[in-house]
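Two proteins, back to back. First:
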Amino acid sequence: MRLEIEAGDSADVEQFLASALDLDPADVFPITGLLDATGLFQIYNLGGFSDIRDSPFVPAAVPAFTLAANPWAAIRARDILVHHPYESFAHVVEFIEAAANDDRVLALKQTLYRTSSDSPVVRALQRAADRGKQVTAVIELKARLDEERNILWAKELEKSGVHVVYGFIGLKTHCKVSLVVRREDDTSIRRYVHLATGNYNPQTARTYTDIGLFTSNPDFADDVSALFNYLTGYAELPQWRKLIVGAEPAADRDDSRRSSAKRRTRATARPAASWRSFNGLLEPAVVKALYKASQSGVRVDLVCRGICSLRPGLPGVSENIRVVSIVDRFLEHSRIFYFENGGQPEVFTGSADWMDRNLSRRVEVVFPIEQPDLKMRLIDEILKTTLSDNVKARELLPDGTYRRVTPGPGGGGGAQPAALPGAGGSGQPATGRGAVAGRNSGGAARRATRAEDEGPSDKRSWSTRLACSKKHARRVLHDRGSLSSPLDHSRQDHRRRGVRVRDRLWRRVGRVRLAIALPTHVPATERGGEKRQTENHGNSSHDRFHPE
């Protein structure tokens, strides 16, 4: 546990809080400066000051949609990959609104984890139900700090005749999936699917980088239909054709990919490689597997924006692993997984990070990108550009500190990812990070990132904040032989301590209200970055930004 207080607080306050929370003096850190960084949003939301603000950014339209008569014609022609916020989220909203207004659409099924206060997606679902379509919404009531909003939306949808499902006890439904069932002109039935890494939230889509895929591929449609049957009924999990669904299947499938890469490394002179981009890495089993892959000669490049319990560059352990964190104007939220696969690259993307909460306590979906031009676009335009960043990237060092990557002679100095066979140009216009000129250090997303608890510097957004202590982190990380043991043995202790501390605080504090995060359910090392953040983009003050 870690307690941060203002440097000027009295010794009595410090002693009281440390005693109430069962903390040692070494776990109390006086901080000089602002503790509650979210208070700065009041200044940010003031009008004017255009000369020191980021210039407005207008997302690009996707030609495949704008040139087609309707979304169905565009998706029938080919799979469509959308990279937000560089490409407009309006196409996602239009996809759902078109389903609500089209008389040929028979059914619409949707997962909702977080959405905006006046969500056009929810309104479209209500309108579809009013028009007599079969509409199903899987709403996660336990989305942290959005519980009230989701309950209100669930009630509104039920009043409109939508079949509302609340998911499983003990598992959060975190996947981002939409399914439209439509009768075509020839009276055949076709299913249209949207899969994504980010929420169906037009507000966060302005500042979060996410990937979305539109497809009518029958294999994807079969898997998504089976997923909704599983979420809304008592159906058994099928043998998935394309998707990787759930906690254990995702971990097992990824482990098999690493094992395959290690076998190819031993069998050929060409080394295997693996690139990953995600928000956080805390799962001990995954860390140990990455260490083993590195020891087998697999080159691993990780873009981990938030907390990372892996240590790269350790001789004999992780010398083939490189980790960078990028914090920029747009919050890096995409989850992309690349495997060299012996010269036949495989690329996956999805909703899951490599954290215990994602792999053990959430319903997640990871899906492959198989269309060659879309696959090359992810590799060349997004992954390569991100790994070559020498402006906003910070490299994780073996001692757990971060060093800012600086441009070298001729503008180099970024990460040097392994060469990829056949990774040529995609032939599509550059709309991602590499195409955005004049990137600067400002931006609401960067400020929001500083206020969350996932960042490398472990910045907090509450007046008094608790986190995993450095002492505990060192104990976990240095015990590399059994990395999971400290976490496993500490979970019950954290839960018992959280309940005990909470009761003691309420007894002793009385009417004093403290902004304290208590680990009443899971240890702080596993909570990740779902802290409340608010930003007014001309909408309701209830719109929140929650890195997942």
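And the second protein:
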Amino acid sequence: MSTAFLLVAIAGLHQVIFAQVSPSCSTAYFFPSPDAEWVVPGSNLIFRPSEGYGILDNLSWGVEGSQSGRVTGTTHYVETVDTWVFVPTQDFELGENVKVELAFERNGRNEQFLWSFTVRKKDLNKTVEYKNESWVSSPSALKNSESDQFNTVLPESKSSLPAFNAGIDRSLRLPDIHITSIKGGDSGSKIFAAPYSEDSISNFHLVFGGEGDSILLYQEKRHRRDELYAPYDEYGKIVKYDFATNGFAVYDTSLTLLYNVGSEDYYTDFHDMQFLPNGNVLILGIDTREIVRNDEIVTVQGTSIEEMTTDGLVVFVWLSLDDDSIAIEDAAPNYVDFSSDNLDYMHTNSVDLDDDGNLLISCRHMNAVFKIDWTTAGVLASRVIWKMGGERSTIEVWDGGRPFHGQHFARRLENGHLLLFDNGMGTFPFYARAAEYVISEEGREASIVWEYDHDRSVISYSRGSAQRLPNGNTMICWGSVGEGDPHATEVDPDGNIVWEITFGDSTDRFSSYQVLASTMTLLAAKPFLQQDPGSARLLFTKLGDTEVSEFAIHLGHSGSVFPYDTTAATSYEIPSVFSDYDTLLAQVEALYPDGREGVFSDIITIDMTTVGLDEIVETCSGLPLQWALLKNWPNPFNESTEVAIDLRQGSFISVDVFNLLGQRVQQLYRGPLSEGVHVWGLKSTGMGSGIYLLRVHDRAGKSIVRKITLLR
């Protein structure tokens, strides 16, 4: 280990102070820290002087690797956190030793810091596979145990929840949704949920609101099961985790994408992220290393926390595997198999900014909440201020003999208390709850002051959240639950249920990572459009816009789209006439009854080779057609063909012919029609040989499209 020393030299008329940085330096924060041995190849170099250190000028970096040689890069100063960052032009080489010389002027005096670190020999962070939260048994098996502790009678309200199906297209495999609400009207809140099915096929982002917070406002199908989907009211942001990019997408209240952010050096953890008052963000990550344990090489997954600017410049880093006060052996054996060659010993699932600027993190596999020093600019052997729960807890917890286990979503409340969701999977009897604690940091003790456990009827082996609402109520997401259990419950301070939601039924069980409430006003700037994965169905909506009357469907290829159809629904089946295309472009336009200009979604590209199309598609409302398109004759045709429809009741109808470029070549009719059969003659004047699309459409959003062929 290095030892601190100071050399003073006379250079001309200037004193030059050389300081070898020790691993316990209190003058400034350095990253990578002196003598670090597990530095990732893509690391930035960070320098943050302690408060009152003085004004620095003419700062420069000298960086040299034992394999890379002289390392070039760019220097950035982040004024909001008084931090200098050196970004190397290229990654360091694996296993090399790197020496750093940091020179600057301070108060008219030249100073220089010297330190070194070693790059890890193998970088596993780019190949890590996230492992789902696990337990010894499923919640259903636990609930069905013959032990008396599991013979719980469910409240009658659970088996008699009213079905809720307003506006839901069952073909999308949305779960059955049951809502109980006694709020007595619109509370002004929105409920964000991300239920997923056990088959990992039917996974959604959903937003509820309106009367009794019970109207489905938004639905988006997603690919993976565990994804953060959360409102951040204080900052006016909505965040989605994207497994495809291993990072977070940040939106404003108009659902406009502001930026993407995630870790470049560690595997971005989906569990949580936080915004900071200084404009930066906190990103959780998984730091994977190979270590020697009991004379064997094992893979261990620790926690990384990075503070970074919204454009990804890292300004502060904490790594649990480099913290002297956190031991792998402190993990709970019911979560971590110590005989395994892969140890996920922390499993951090939440991060929160504490009132004093430090951090609170919840670590499931430690059964503990840690407070991490985020304000001291120094090189510290440990940044753990205290540990509450689990082995070697430094906070004595008075909890009535029931410590929290496998907890999630630890948050500091406005009253200074700590609220968390306790999965309770290490205590008997097994049941989940929301728990609130008052903490005396000076006295190093905590006491439980409030809890809600739903009559001890809910078993949750993973996931979950507990959120204190502005009205004093608590929104609880029960995570991975068994059959018949609710997914989220809002209770008042006295434990009375005021809102509850259940997804799925006994044949299609759903779980939720979090369910969170928001009072933000949401109004999408444009429609959201996506392809239902693996199908020829388009899904779309314009969140918060109650004035949209219908959507126009625009389809095409070769770089452009054209108006093709309209619908009053929020899904649309692509007609089979497009089956000959390898790719198809799609866009939707939100239309308004007062005739104002429509609002367009982004254009998406659909790989038509991976989807199946029906021969004739009846789109939109799901109601039976009140008319039929009869076979046109002849088809193929030369000079003319007859087009006929049979109306079962009067309707407003348009009959159009398009070429394969999406250009309308003829409009045979547009207007009201009475009940009965109506026939039009289609003449081929001005049309060349080829395939055309005959479309019949009504104002209810029903369309039928058919191929017709002109032969000259």
